[in-house]
Amino acid sequence: MFVEVAAPPRPMDKAIKAARPSLPRAIRRAAPPYLYLAPALILLGIWVYRPLAQTAQLSFYSWNLLPTTPMEPVGLDNYRRMMDSPELGDALWRTLEVILGLLPFSIVIPVVVGLLTRRLGGRSRAVYQALVFSPMLVAPVAGAAVWGWLLDPRGGVVDRATGTSVNWLQESGYAQVAIIMITGWHVLGFAVLVVAAALSGINGDYADAAALDGASRGQITRWITLPLLSPTLVFLTLMTVLLSAQWTFPLIDSLTQGGPADSTTNVYYLLWDYGFRSYDAGMGAAAGMLLFVGFGLVAAALVWLSERLAFHDN
Amino acid sequence: MSRLGIEGVTKSFGRTVAVDGVSLDVGHGEFLVLLGPSGCGKSTLLRMIAGLTPLSAGRIRLDDTDITHTPPRDRDLAMVFQSYALYPHLSVARNIGFPLRARRRTRPEIRGRVAEVAEVLDLGELLERRPRELSGGQRQRVALGRALVRDPGAFLMDEPLSNLDAKLRSSTRAELTGLHRRLGSTFVYVTHDQVEAMTMATRIALLNAGRLEQVGTPAEVYDEPASVFVAGFLGSPPMNLMDARIVSRNGELRAVAQDIDVPLGIAGELPPRDVVLGVRPEHLAPAATPMLRAQVRMVENLGSDEVAHCTVGSAAVSLRGPRPLGMSTGDALGLGVAPHHIHLFDRAGGRRLTWSPDPASEPFAASPEPNSPYKPAHTLR
């Protein structure tokens, strides 16, 4: 007679129950992560989301920032006024100019510098990157003051060196260029550092494999390195689009105050101007809300793009 | 159609010498395995052949051309990396076609070649996928496809199977051997896995600390290890190595130590000499006249075989045989070995000692190191 070998027993009928911890103990065990998170969440709520909500509320009122004056509800009036004023369109256009003007500093030059310095030895590369990065450490207002002297039409170094007599900060057109250049000088080091970090994060095997596969140095850069770098480049684009107006603010405020003839007034400066120079808090809040929504959409699109481009390198 | 000549190749990083004067000839159609423990310089040697690491000294020839200073892209070599290095942003088809694209072949030609290679490697279904959507075995095949697509002079492989699980590894081993036989081209294959080396190689070059220890067929390196290092590296468990002394007794040579008295089966009179006595675990067996007195420490069951780990004098000795061995922990055994299964090594230099019966010449000569211009004369007189 054949007897089948039985499988190891599996208790199917009786449900096996492990001992359960008591409720207070379960709570004590589950609580720590939330307790650790709590300070950050509370501060975020107080300093970011509450002001945001208040700004949204303020944008439907007319108020001149004086505590003695009552706030008057005006509905959508602030938004309507803003849409009708030509200032907003001009400021948006100038913001676009600033963004486009800064892209070479945040993308093109860093990529070129990163690719070139990749071949340098360890210490000289570190020294070089430290040199490029150092402007980032200069306080923007201090940098602006020094640039103010350098660009001075009466004996400034820039005019003497170029042999021109341009009044950089007082002529419309030139002023915008000067603001873009100085901001670019400021952020360049940061962007170079980000690109260098991304480049060193790319596994060297890819370039080695491509070299053995017969690709030239230029082909390796075009077909392998740049595509693998693209998520970082999208990140830098995102930073430039969202932050360039903010990066320029301290320079504009200390060098040109938005002038001459509003030629350096971008949306952030305009917002500040509404709120704190014209004392029209409702308009400032409305402009802030519009910017918040507009830049939020742009950011969402770029984040979506960067996720499409991210190659999981494993 | 390629022969690789490696001549006195040396690489030093600062003061550490990673590869130290290695000379090797890889004949056309050979499957040469560079074998050694991690850090022995085998990958560095392969990268030097590929042109990815510059040489500190020496020369590399492909057929009759000196390629020492030729950039990798002009070397007509294909390499499979340990990480596979599949371009993560390109589909499988574009990965395989990459070498042809770099050579500016036409699109239809590339498509045709890729389809052919995909057919051979059974990748047809996966051509549109990205590398991250592939399993380890599929990635390995794509890496192989990228090497195959342009019919290179020689294939270089850097531990291509080390990221695969055990089962896939053994089937891929067989596939690689089959591929080598079909293509008939030259393979240089780096691994630390002795099973890969023994099963696939036509010749094995064993490296230790940047130097060649032995070059030979798998049978040669296993049956006649040229040094203590080779003997202790190959085999599972590796060869038993015991310090012993060769003495003459009644006109016969014997290896003697505590609990060891092994007749070498050689008639002769020699002054005593310190050696390392080597015996493979599978060549030890209980004997009526014991040569090794062993105490069993532990018995391992490998399924088909059993391995008994014993102590002989102060040395750890293992014995391997078909199950059941009939031994248990604590047993005292008398073990014997046939004279032709005995290996002797010089105690100081570690090189293999061979017996030369002509008394006029050196009776016991250490086998010369590969590449060494002189023959060390360790003689037993």
From TrEMBL, chain A:
One of its GO terms (biological process) is transmembrane transport. Keywords: Cell membrane, Membrane, Transmembrane, Transmembrane helix, Transport. Its main location: membrane. It is a multi-pass membrane protein. The chain crosses the membrane at residues 34-52, 91-116, 128-150, 174-202, 223-245, 281-305. Belongs to the binding-protein-dependent transport system permease family. This is Binding-protein-dependent transport system inner membrane component. InterPro entries: ABC_transporter_permease, MetI-like, MetI-like_sf. Residues 92-302 form the ABC transmembrane type-1 domain. CDD domains: TM_PBP2 (cd06261). The lineage of its organism: Bacteria, Bacillati, Actinomycetota, Actinomycetes, Kitasatosporales. One of its GO terms (cellular component) is plasma membrane. It is found in: Cell membrane. It comes from Streptomyces himastatinicus ATCC 53653.
From TrEMBL, chain B:
CDD domains: ABC_MalK_N (cd03301). Residues 4-234 form the ABC transporter domain. InterPro entries: AAA+_ATPase, ABC_transporter-like_ATP-bd, ABC_transporter-like_CS, ABC_transpr_MalK-like, ABC_transpr_MalK/UgpC-like, Mo/tungstate-bd_C_term_dom, NA-bd_OB-fold, OB_MalK-like. One of its GO terms (molecular function) is ATP hydrolysis activity. It comes from the Bacteria. Residues 356-369 have a biased composition (Low complexity). One of its GO terms (biological process) is carbohydrate transport. GO terms for cellular component: ATP-binding cassette (ABC) transporter complex, substrate-binding subunit-containing. Residues 355-381 are annotated as: Disordered. This is sn-glycerol-3-phosphate import ATP-binding protein UgpC. It comes from Streptomyces himastatinicus ATCC 53653. The lineage of its organism: Bacteria, Bacillati, Actinomycetota, Actinomycetes, Kitasatosporales.
